[in-house]
Each structure stands twice: as structure tokens, then as C-alpha cells.
Amino acid sequence: MDPLVRPIGGREELEQCFDLWGSVFGEGRRFFQSRLDLDRTYSPATTWVAVADGEIVSAAQLFPFEAQWGGVALRVAGIGSVATRPTHRGRGLALAILNAQRRWMEEAGSARKGFALALLFAAPRAEPLYARAGFHRLPFGTAVAWEPVGWGHPPYRVRPVAEGDWPALRAIYASQLSHLPMGHIRPPAFWADAIRWTDAGEPGGVRLVAESGGEVAGYLFYRWGEDGRARVLEVVAHPGHPRAAEALAQEVYRRAGAGRALPLTLPVGHGLARGRPAEPGPDRAMWSVVNPAALVRAIHPVLQRRWVEERGPLEVAAVPGGMHLRWPSGERTLAGQNLLAAMMTGLEGDPLLQGLFPFAPPYLWSLDHF
Predict the structure, then answer these.
(1) Which DSSP helix (H) or strand (E) runs through 20?
(2) Across-strand partners of 49?
(3) At what angle do helices 29-37 and 188-201 cross, to 10 degrees?
(4) Which of 162, 183, 324, 334 is disulfide-compatible with 339, CB 3.0–4.6 A?
(5) Do 303 and 332 form a contact (C-beta atoms < 8 A)?
(6) Which of 253, 282, 311 is the last residue of a domain?
């Protein structure tokens, strides 16, 4: 009998998924249970399984969120916790779940706020699986071995986060999205829940703020790894206080001791990477167009705003896997990886369309992973 692929039926099956994920991944059962139990937006409809002989043998989780692109909100499906029992691998079960999730998302895409894109972070060995499911790997992040230049003293006081700081931290994060093209829109519940599930899964996190004149100007989250090195999860400064990030990084560098460089994975273009040797980030982001109609509906106002009117009216229509652009003197189809690359990295060098798709590095951090 072919395996049955469907959303879970209740808490008992979710418990079986926790056991499956805990046995397959190194983080253990507690990590996955904390992530879902402490997420107040969780719905059982987002946990999908393959059932064979009455047993859950494969599972994957969908984390809905909103991202902004050019100032408009896109509904994105974050895909994570994709796992199959060793006894049932090689049968296409994980791919069947991903395809079933895509069909469900495509149907949801007919709604006004349907899913436009999907995002996951893939280990190298899993990339072929996700490619078969319609995902495309795109450049993501910058890796820097950070050390202070000189030991200047930026005019900020660095201290632990206090309870009353959270509204300021949310505002600082949001201020980045006001001038960067692509990022995760974090509702207030995300901040409270993400901090709780991160602590539950990986205890020992440290949170710092940089303060100037009694106001919070930036923040940094990090935790100590098993190798004794500090792992920075996120470092964000208010646009009006770019040196706040430097003050925070200096403090973590000082705490780490031994004069070792601080490994940072940063969004492309982050101020802490400027003037330092950098490499492509280690995270492997893979994107997919879920519902072209939902995507076109969302970004059409941005494209119209960016279009040079002297070329005549621009028509934008959804096509399988992407969109078709038409104007009086020409037309162009962007689909699949070409469309995703245009949205995520821009079309620099294309004199016709680079105005529609400017340089656009995604602004995502460790807390945005699935």
C-alpha cells in the first residue's frame, strides 16, 4: 500500500513527529517540541506526515511568515524539520510531502493573502531533494572573521537587555526593513516566542544592547558554542547609529578572550563586513515560487512604481512558475530561478529591467531559520 501523505490528526501524532525529528536530527526531541509548543501561532495544519503501515515514517513542518519586498508584504512558507526514518529512505516520501504541501499552498494562494514564495535552508546533501521539489539555491549572507580595527571606543554603553528594552529592539529591527529591499516582518509575538523557544532549545543565550544618551541604539544576541566560541545570532544597529554594531561586537570579542577572531554570518552589505575580507555565508538558502498569481498580485504595485513611464504602460501577468512583463516596445518572461534571482539579488547589468529589480540582498538572521 502506498504511504498516505496528509497533515497530522492531533497531538498524539505531533508527539510521534517529535520522536521522529529527535531521532533523525542531532538537536534532540526537546529542541523540536519547544519550537512548536512555544509558538502561539502554531497550527496542526502546518505539520505534514507520510504514514506507512499505521506509522509516521516521514514528516516536515511549514512555518508561515511574512516578508517584505520593496515595501509590500509577501506571505512566505518556511519549510523545516524535513526527516524520514532510515528504514524508509529512498522511497520519495519527503518529496511526496513537499509536493503535497506545495499543492496545499497553491490552493491557499487563490486567497487574497495566499503564499507567494517558499524558503528553506538546506544541508548540501539535501539540495538535490529540494531541487526536485522546485527549490533553487541563491547566494545568502556574508561570512567574516571579525576583529576590532585599532580598539576605538564607540560612544555607547553596552549592557544586558532589560525587560523594558523589547519595544526598542523591535523598532530597531523594523527600521532596517524601511530601507532594505527584503526581510522578515516580525510581529510582536515572534519576539516573545522566538526568544523562549531559542532558550529552551539552546540554553545559555546572551543579549546585549548598546545605549546612547539613555536610548537603545542597537542590540546583539549570541550564545556560547561547545567549542568555547561565541556564536552571534543577530547584531542590528539603528540606521542613525551605525557604530552601535561595532561597540556590541567589540564587547563580545572582549568577552571571548584569547584574541581569536569573532566569526560572524551577516546579511550582505552589513556594516560590520565593510573593509574586511569576506566569503559567501555558510547558510544555504533555497527559494521557490509557490503561487505566481499571489506573487504578481503582491509586487505589481512596486513594479508599477519603479517603471519608467516614458516606455509606455507596463503589463504584468502571472505565468507558470513566474511572471510575464509586456510594454509597447518589448516583453520579457521571468520564471523559476531567473525570477527568484531577480528578486533576491537584482538584475544589475540589465539596462532594461534593473530599475524594476535593483540590488536586493535578503535581510535574514539565525532566528529566521526553520
Answers:
(1) helix 11-24
(2) 6, 59
(3) 160
(4) 334
(5) no
(6) 282
Looking at residue 219, the DSSP 8-state letter turns out to be E
Burial of 210 from C-beta contacts in 10 A (0-12 / 13-18 / 19+):
buried
Q: How far is CA 184 from the centre of its chain?
A: 7
- Among 241, 261, 282, the domain-final residue is 282
79 φ, ψ (degrees, to nearest 5): -105, 130
- Phi then psi for 191, rounded to 5 degrees? -60, -45
pLDDT 10s digit of each residue in the chain, 370 long?
578 999 999 999 999 999 999 999 988 899 899 999 999 889 999 999 999 988 999 999 999 999 999 889 999 999 999 999 999 999 999 999 999 999 998 876 455 568 999 999 998 889 999 999 999 998 788 899 999 887 666 789 999 999 999 999 999 999 888 777 788 999 888 898 888 888 877 777 899 999 999 999 999 999 988 777 888 999 999 999 999 999 999 999 999 886 788 999 998 888 899 888 888 887 788 999 999 999 999 999 999 999 988 789 999 999 999 999 999 999 999 999 999 999 988 998 888 899 999 987 788 888 888 8
CA distance 27 to 38: 17
Q: Counting every residue, how long is the chain?
A: 370
Q: Which distant-in-sequence residues (6+ apart) come within 8 Å of 203 by Cβ?
A: none
C-alpha to C-alpha distance for 343 and 335, rounded to whole angstroms:
11
Flag whether the pTM goes above 0.90: yes
Number of domains forming the structure of the chain: 3
53 conformational bin, left if phi > 0, alpha if psi -120 to 50, beta if neither = left
Residue the block writes with cell 585599532: 150
The set of residues, in sequence order, having a beta carbon less than 8 Å from that of 272 and lying 6+ positions away, is 144, 146, 235, 245, 246, 249, 264, 266
Q: Is residue 311 part of a domain?
A: yes
Its domain, for residue 306, covers 293-362
